[in-house]
């Protein structure tokens, strides 16, 4: 058995066991910046939600707790727009910048610990105000945004970085950040809002070159329901994730709900074509502000009746406890 196959089987077993303990479906937390703003944070800054690692870490912890008490099984660190380059541009030293990156995961882990303490003190799985206080497996994922997120010019929604940005540049840009987050104690690494094939390739090559042990996922965004936002084929992007034994999930985030079902079908088809060289692959959809229930019902029906998939996906009714009409996500393992 090759190293790639062994890594794929190990990652697949990890998430399959986790999902089994979650009852077949794991709920990912929702939009982070919107919740920080609801708590009073001012995010008018190039660092966006990462600004609160500097100014309001207690609010970051509070948002994590809100999502856990709403039933989230996976919470993401507030590091989507946190980069060494971005912190240094604000006047922080290399050491301070690296500390803040690791601190993003530490705060999420602290929130999980606080949540477990509250669960132990509770005599019921639900509090009188409807909060979920249930002992269950909870994973912390270190969020890694795209190069476009660092630019803070919206280019993560176009994938247009210019001809000067090549594979080597992107790997060099992300390398130290990925190393630090992999060593921070996170259970997963979440590469989010990946807008093009080039950056997807950079991420999977980094995982291999740095021999990252923490399993990862790749989630792409689309504006036409067929391709990723750069115009690159979603199937080709998904195949890049499939090629890496360290990637356990591929999916969609920050995409109009009406496109989700067809995009997930496309990813699943890619997986079926690649299944001879990979084990099970997790399919995921992830947070999008004001993500409507109608779209989730369609996805639930797809997973419920598609015989290629092991578990169904169900919308979490308790999600309204923390964020009435904000985004949430879920993961599902395919056969």
Description:
It comes from Nicotiana tabacum. This is Homocysteine S-methyltransferase 2 isoform X2. The structure is a single chain. The chain is an alpha/beta fold and 335 residues long. It has helices at residues 3-21, 32-38, 51-55, 57-69, 84-89, 94-121, 147-151, 167-182, 197-209, 234-242, 257-274, 293-305; strands at residues 26-28, 74-76, 139-144, 188-194, 216-220, 247-253, 282-286, 329-333. Strand 4 (188-194), helix 9 (197-209) and strand 5 (216-220) form a beta-alpha-beta unit. Helix 4 (57-69) runs parallel beside helix 6 (94-121) and helix 8 (167-182) crosses helix 9. Mean pLDDT is 82; it is low at 289-335.
Topology of this protein?
Layout: H1 3-21, E1 26-28, H2 32-38, H3 51-55, H4 57-69, E2 74-76, H5 84-89, H6 94-121, E3 139-144, H7 147-151, H8 167-182, E4 188-194, H9 197-209, E5 216-220, H10 234-242, E6 247-253, H11 257-274, E7 282-286, H12 293-305, E8 329-333
Parallel strand pairs: 2-3, 3-4, 4-5, 5-6, 6-7
Antiparallel strand pairs: 1-8, 7-8
Helix pairs in contact: 4-6, 8-9, 9-10, 10-11, 11-12
Which residues sit in consecutive blocks of at least 5 with pLDDT less than 50? 289-335
Q: Number of helical runs?
A: 12
State the distance separating the first and last CA atoms.
Answer: 20 Å
SS-based class = alpha/beta
Helical fraction? 40-55%
Biggest sheet strand line-up: 1-8-7-6-5-4-3-2
Shape: globular
Order of helices and strands: HEHHHEHHEHHEHEHEHEHE
Give the beta-strand count.
Answer: 8
On the 0 to 100 scale, the average pLDDT is: 82
Beta strand %: 5-15%
Largest beta sheet, briefly? Answer: 8 strands, mixed
Radius of gyration: 19 Å
Protein name: Homocysteine S-methyltransferase 2 isoform X2
Organism: Nicotiana tabacum
């Amino acid at each position: 058995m090759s190293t790639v196959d062994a890594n794929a089987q190990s990652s697949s077993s990890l998430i399959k066991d986790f999902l089994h303990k979650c009852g077949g479906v794991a709920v990912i937390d929702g939009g982070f910046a919107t919740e920080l703003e609801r708590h009073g944070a001012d995010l008018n800054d190039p660092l966006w939600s990462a600004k609160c690692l500097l100014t309001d870490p207690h609010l970051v912890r509070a948002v994590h707790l809100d999502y856990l008490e709403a039933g989230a099984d996976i919470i993401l660190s507030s590091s989507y727009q946190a980069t060494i380059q971005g912190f240094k541009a604000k006047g922080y030293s290399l050491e301070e910048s690296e500390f803040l990156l690791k601190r993003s995961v530490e705060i999420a882990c602290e929130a999980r610990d606080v949540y477990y303490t509250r669960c132990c003190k509770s005599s019921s799985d639900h509090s009188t105000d409807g909060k979920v206080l249930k002992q269950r497996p909870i994973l912390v994922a270190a969020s890694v945004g795209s190069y476009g997120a660092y630019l803070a010019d919206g280019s993560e929604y176009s994938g247009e970085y210019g001809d000067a940005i090549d594979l080597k540049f992107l790997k060099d840009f992300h390398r130290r950040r990925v190393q630090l987050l992999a060593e921070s104690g996170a259970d997963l690494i979440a590469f989010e809002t990946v807008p093009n094939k080039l950056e997807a390739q950079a991420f999977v090559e980094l995982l291999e070159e740095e021999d990252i042990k923490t399993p990862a996922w790749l989630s792409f965004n689309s504006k036409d329901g067929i391709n990723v936002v750069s115009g690159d084929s979603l199937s080709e992007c998904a195949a890049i994730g499939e090629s890496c034994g360290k990637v356990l999930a591929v999916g969609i985030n920050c995409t109009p709900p009406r496109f989700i079902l067809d995009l997930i079908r496309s990813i699943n088809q890619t997986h079926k074509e690649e299944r001879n060289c990979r084990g099970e692959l997790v399919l995921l959809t992830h947070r999008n502000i004001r993500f409507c229930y109608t779209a989730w019902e369609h996805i639930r029906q797809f997973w419920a009746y598609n015989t290629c998939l092991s578990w169904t996906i169900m919308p979490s009714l308790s999600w309204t406890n923390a964020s009435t009409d904000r985004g949430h996500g879920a993961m599902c393992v395919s056969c």
